[in-house]
Specification:
With about 270 residues, the protein is of the alpha+beta class. It has two domains: about 90 residues, Pseudouridine synthase I, catalytic domain, N-terminal subdomain (Alpha-Beta Plaits); about 130 residues, Pseudouridine synthase I, catalytic domain, C-terminal subdomain (Alpha-Beta Plaits, 2-Layer Sandwich), CATH 3.30.70. It has six helices and ten strands, in the order βαββαβββαββααβαβ. Helix 3 crosses helix 4.
Length: about 270
């Protein structure tokens, strides 16, 4: 039986989702704990590859397991996992759907705070004293819906068969005191470090280190910035993943409650 696992995790203690022999990863921890509960190894396939220290408030992986993944298994697996990884749902699937290749929509949120706050450490990116021209930031962000080849904004673009991403949403929200920013972006796919690189370049526009013409020129000329300057990983969350046959609301209210969703206004 193929199962989809609906999960969430904080990435601060991990070198990303993808299993790596040299580093601790979310995938490795989950595979080890499933094997511990079931007494046999199980290979899992995730819906994407989050970078080191990047979070996921909604993430899916699939696994083929002959055992019945009932309430007892759900409880034992959750109990064995560390506190920064949670299983929200285990969903039996018909046929052999794929958690990664079948995904048609992904949304990410990126959070910034501009003052020192120990309660946001590890779950929002700190940029002390960041002074932004919000109109320039908004104008640069609007360009993301105008173009679809994101070759200039990824690492190792030549390793991709193609670099086209159909971005359907890109916008900034700002807190009432203007000390916190929230970037939301949705697309059918994303390239390696694409969002963090984009945020890094957008912030340069906002603080006046990069002009709108120069930023748009990267798209027009398909030219990679000389300095990519990816934004800090701690502020990034994979926050929504959708399939043609499965579209679940994120289980955790963390993004709304912790960041007080009602305070955000669109730029």
């Amino acid at each position: 039986m193929r199962y989809f696992f609906h999960i969430g995790y904080r990435g601060l203690n991990y070198q990303g989702w993808q299993k790596n022999a040299l580093y601790n990863s979310v995938q490795k921890v989950i595979e080890d704990k499933i094997a511990q509960v079931l007494k046999f190894p199980v290979s899992i396939n995730g819906c994407g590859r989050t970078d080191a220290k990047v979070n996921a408030s909604q993430f899916f992986f699939h696994a083929d397991i002959d055992e019945d993944c009932d309430a007892t298994f759900f409880f034992r697996l959750n109990k064995s996992l560390p506190e920064d990884i949670a299983i929200f749902d285990i969903i039996p699937m018909v046929g052999l759907p794929h958690a990664r290749f079948d995904a048609v929509h992904r949304q990410y949120d990126y959070f910034i705070h501009t003052y020192k706050d120990p309660f946001l450490t590890g779950c929002s990116a700190q940029y002390l004293g960041l002074a932004m021209d919000l109109e320039k930031l908004k104008s640069a962000t609007a360009l993301l819906l105008k173009y679809n080849d994101y070759r200039p904004f990824c690492t190792s673009p030549d390793k991709n068969d193609y670099t086209v991403c159909h971005v359907s949403k890109a916008e900034w929200l700002i807190s009432s005191n203007e000390q916190r920013l929230r970037f939301q972006i949705s697309s059918n796919r994303f390239l390696s470090k694409m969002i963090r690189i984009l945020v890094g370049q957008l912030l340069k526009v906002g603080i006046g280190k990069l002009s709108l013409i120069e930023f748009e020129g990267y798209f027009i000329n398909q030219e990679t910035p000389k300095i990519l300057s990816p934004a800090h990983p701690q502020g990034l969350y994979l926050s929504k993943v959708s399939y043609p046959y499965l579209d679940m609301e994120p289980k955790s209210d963390f993004l709304n409650l912790n960041f007080e969703n009602s305070i955000w206004d669109k730029l």
